[in-house]
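Progress against Task 2.4 (sequence-to-structure conversion) is shown through the following example record, which the project officer requested during the mid-term review.
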Amino acid sequence: MACPVSTEKSHYVVGGWLPGTGDQITAKLKLLFEGYLNSYFMSHFNGSATFEFIPVDYDEASYANHKIKTKELDFLYTLAGRMVCVQAEFGWIPVATERVDVLGLETGAQGTVVFSLKSNTRIRNISDMKNSMVGVGYLLSSNAYHFGYKLLREHGVNIFIDVSKLVFYETDYADLLGDVVKEKIDVGMLPSSWLFENAGELLESELLVHSPRVYEYEGETFPFPTSTPLTPQYGVSASLEVPWRVKLQVARALANLTRDHPAAAAADIATFTAPGHFDGVREGLESLGLLRMPSLESWEEGDVHATCHSPFADVIDTIQCPAGHVLQDARTVAHRCVDNRLECPAGRVCFCRPCQKDLEVRVFPARVVLSLALTIFSLTLLLSFCWVFPLETFPYAAAFGRRLQRRAAPVLTRIIRPGPR
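Structure tokens generated for the chain above:
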């Protein structure tokens, strides 16, 4: 009897994203997700699966969502915000979260640091940030944007109505930091791991961290103070079509990675652990309108998947104006910074108070409008009646009618018998 032929695929494509170009992403991650995984599967699982690495999301042509829809990707390594998006949109499952070394201390989490210059005496706390210039990072980053936005809002500062200029630096974190130091902007918000690793001395000497606290994440204390609660580090998600056996084997392989392995050194990763929780990440995306859950009608029609804002779409479409405010038209928003003589750095997207107060419109209840219309109609009919018929026909109303006629005659003449104009 012939043995059944297995239809399970054996070759898997891993997409990966980090800030940088496609070549830079490949240089850091290919050894891990291609070289290391292939070697591990060969020695531990008899080469039951092979892996190929490709960079994604570094430009619109490499957008991971397109490759997921065409089934060109099986695994995705990316930041927590994108992991939530592919889970909500396509049902992908997190299988591992990385752990990194920050100044020699290992951690699997990170927070947001909201900072300004110590020498900027005008800004001593978050409430002072009204009328300031604020820089944020990547649109889908919890730690370079969402959590900082939420923190400022909790202290009465809405970045779309209260700050004079908002600058999106995307993944150019070094430029954002540099512009704060050069006093081109007043406030910045960046991921704590990146900031402490790349600007530790500046944090000690020149930068003021706002609302600093030491937070815990899943029983682990983050080694440095941050302005916001913590989220998972970058991680790996898998398609629903990848067999559970392969998912578990990949998770096991990544968990057995050690920091002294060349692949870990190239990727600046210590190791991997079980995936963290993403509740706060999801809430941050939803609060900014970057993640939209399906409507009731969509659920009834069988469409249960959410939609996430593309990192390559127009940023203006993500602006959520607070209650009592409306988004100005696109042309006004585009010229508002220039009109206010607030220069936008080259290659950046800037907004200068894009939301304005909604004009109050008093709307009377329908019954009030109807009653008023009936009253006016009745009065007009009565006056017309008195005008046409002799008042002597109604002796008891004659006296009242003559007085009414004398007062209403000039007005009614214009209403009923208008002359040439």
